[in-house]
Amino acid sequence: MLKTLQDGSLWMVTQIDHSAIAGFLAAHWGNAEFARPGYFGTAKDPERLRDETVFAIAQHDNGWWEWEAEPELSDDDGFPFGLGEALKNPHAGFERWRRGLKRFPQRPMVNVLISSHCNLFYASRTLEHPDPAFTHPLSWKRAPEQLPVGSIEAPRAFMHEVEAMQKQWTTQLQADSTTASWLERDNLAPLQRLIQLCDGLSLALCSALVPAKTETTRGLGEDAFELHNVPRTSWSDRVTITATPQGNRCIELDPYPFDIDPLPVVMPVRIVALPCEKPVPFHSWWHAHEREFVSFQFVKRK
Predict the structure, then answer these.
(1) Higher per-residue confidence, 142 vs 249
(2) CA 230 – CA 34 distance, rounded (Å)
């Protein structure tokens, strides 16, 4: 659950809805300046690879489904744990990834991409020198969450477990000349990066990580932020995109990677005015509390 305080209210967006927004962004990625997913290299059947990529990005957090259906609740306010609270239990996090990576056994490429996103998440926290090309967009100005003291071996062991699963999926893909081409670095690396980019843009909206400067901007203030190592036409052709909130939930991107301008984004969110009583019993309250749909848009610099 992505929980944010905005204008004296608590905003709550599920990981599943956040993931779907990331998939929406991926489905609209590409224009005359930016290659579409699947077209960064010389992959065979690029449209099929694009479809697999969009599906993977839309489902990259599908392991949270069970948790979101029956979330852990905070003793303080009775609402679901926020993302930071939930991540304090790393072993529960491993189980969420395991569930997500078993969800689509007939989609090996989808699993390769989601598992790559998983391992890059832990690499930034456990490796001494993680690949800077895959630094998550939200980690450029601040380090990733620190792991508890003495806990580094568990995520490293889990990464090895994921790598063993990846070998099974890559073996399936290599058995066919079309899908084998998808694993070539010029085809695979841009897609691994694209998951991080769409994830970062979606998180910036859904958890309002761009700080608000006024009470009317709903978490999108005037501070620009950057997306680094964005593949444009190929993995060797990477650029930096500057994202500048313009007010009224409008974010300007320069250069602009999407196929329509403006690109409207609708975020499903439950908004609760504070202070309020604990939602007890929780499920009766949660499913009776109507979601609101908050509109944002990405626009090209004029």
Answers:
(1) 249
(2) 10
pLDDT of residue 147: 55
* Count of structural domains, the chain: 1
What are the b/e assignments for 149-164, b being 16+ CB within 10 Å? Answer: eeeeebbeebbeebee
Calpha distance 224→252 (Å, rounded):
9
For the record, the structure tokens of 38 come out as 């699947």
Q: How far is CA 196 from the centre of its chain?
A: 6
Calpha distance 9→14 (Å, rounded): 16
Helices 46-58 and 108-126 sit at what angle, rounded to 10 degrees? 50
- pLDDT at position 214 over 50: no
Domain interval for residue 122: 2-300
How far, in Å, CA of 266 to CA of 126, rounded? Answer: 35
Query: Residue 21: its pLDDT value, please?
Result: 97
Q: What are residue 187's DSSP bridge partners?
A: none
- CB 125 within 8 Å of CB 134: no
